[in-house]
Amino acid sequence: MRRTILASAMGILALGVSLPAYAQSSEDTLTWSAGSAVGNLDIVANLEGTSRRLLKGNVGEGLAKLITNNGELSWDPLLATSWEQVDPQRWRFKIRQGVKFSDGTPMTVEDVAYTVNKVADPASSKTSILQNIAGAEIVDQETVDILTKGPDFFVYRAAAEISIQKKGWGKDDPTSAQNTLIGTGPYKLESVSPARDLATLVKNDDYWGDKDAFFEKVNLRVIPDSGARLAALNAGEVDIAFDLAPDLAQAAPAQLTAAATEVDILRINAKQKPLDDVRVRQALNYAVDQDVLINNIRLGFAAKPNGQAITPPVRGYNPNITDYGYDAEKATALIKEAGAEGAQLTLMCPSEYYGAVGVNTCQTLEAMYEAVGLQVELQMLPHARWIAEGLLAPKNGVPPPSLFYIQAGTETLDSTAQIRNYMTCNEERSTICDQELDAAAKEALAIADPAKQEEAFQQVFAKAHDVGVMVWLTNPRNVVSTAKGIEGPVYNEGSTVFWADWSRTD
Q1: Boundary residue ending a domain (136, 171, 206)
Q2: 199 DSSP β-pair partners
Q3: CA 20 to 30 Å from 258, out of 136, 145, 214, 475?
Q4: Contact at 8 Å (CB) between 429 and 162?
Q5: Is 306 left (phi over 0), alpha (psi -120 to 50) or beta?
Q6: What is the rounded distance in angstroms from the CA atom of residue 473 to the CA atom of residue 409?
Q7: Domain shared by 414 and 395, yes or no
């Protein structure tokens, strides 16, 4: 039975929000909303959240698939049927036969190798967990090896993040790859509006797998204002609203939540004075009242991160590390001792990527730092500039901001990428170069024994804590606001969504 969901004008008017006209939803159509526009559609790029939710695992698929079961994560075969580690820096994948792209083209080992090598290209703006991928080699017509830059015991987990493209896709026509996608997934990308604020997926009736998606169509509607997203959800115009501030999420018909392995952090540019002084970096941690961030901004949907940007399920987590703790007097004293009173700092944050929570967090941090004697220039940038001028500033040859707000963590439950990106003197993402920490990190990354490497990782995180590599803020929970009767798995990383696993139960 098809059930038409009609908008409630009363609910919209009560919030004083006007919504643009949009097609009505129906029983076999799922409509979700996000705050930021659809960006780059080339799925080997560092996708912003809206594009990732639209495409990854839905239109494009990886060699493995991330599965959650009561909060426990596992990785199941997908475009690969099996894998094995043949040496510390080489993994062998058996590629599934009989898979077709949505245009009917058979997927081959050439497509797999092309995609992995595209990811490995230094020019690729790949996510941090793919930084250790060195490339791919074809073994035979059913087998591909993925090579890594250093020992890696969880390449199959990273392979879940690499959505396989057709050989040559984007090579000769990068613009096409940025604006459309042909993949192997349970959905096909039917359309994206010129303004990048509407998109539609339709079920791939020729999907190679045995997954029969509940929804025939999945519509994306971009609603930048979070109050308007809530109004659309309460009015029945959308079924799911992402990135609502906690107070708005609590006003939604229902919520689905999951513990995140991500941690809110400030990456510190220790190559800039006075942040090259460990006392100032420690002061930045003492100046943060985490209870305010947890209780007043996230309304309890978060925990303290215990002085590290990974959580207990992640390999390398050190249970002996604790947060600095809030001590404004100590922060002020350390800043004075370092001669850094009145120092000018820039704090770069995304204007929409983490929704209102991100904006509120950054504004609160600005006030906390000025209260202990620092001067802060808050820079709120759209996603693309935030990535280019912040996250990838070292790689792009751009002066990094003093402080860069981001969620750090790992979807693979392994801290290899984080140690490489934040603890070493690498030139792509790191903005600190402590020689002792760098040596310890590189030594740990080179260890070929998993148990010994985990112990070494724990020591690296202890050293990183002591020298104040970053500011550890909160460990947030992922919250997805939904209409009643909408069900689906919520993952530790908030941009991971598999629409074929969602359904309507009423």
Answers
A1: 171
A2: 192, 220
A3: 214
A4: no
A5: left
A6: 13
A7: yes
Task: Give the pairing type, strands 344-350 and 403-408.
Answer: parallel
The count of other CB atoms within 10 Å of the CB of residue 344 is: 10
Number of Cβ within 10 Å of residue 331's Cβ equals: 26
Q: Please check whether residue 483 is in contact with residue 233, taking contact to mean a CB–CB distance below 8 angstroms.
A: yes
Q: Which residues 6+ apart lie within 8 Å of 454 measured at CB?
A: 315, 316
CA distance 297 to 313: 25
Q: Indicate the DSSP class of residue 102.
A: T
- How many whole angstroms separate alpha carbon 29 and alpha carbon 26? 5
**Per-block average pLDDT, block size 10, for the chain (506 residues)?**
28 33 67 92 75 94 92 92 96 97 96 94 75 93 96 92 91 81 96 95 94 93 94 96 90 92 94 96 98 94 94 93 97 98 96 83 97 97 89 89 92 88 84 94 93 96 96 94 95 90 91
Q: How far apart are the first and last CA of the chain?
A: 11
Residues 266, 403: Cα–Cα separation, whole Å? 6
Domain count for the chain, please give it: 3
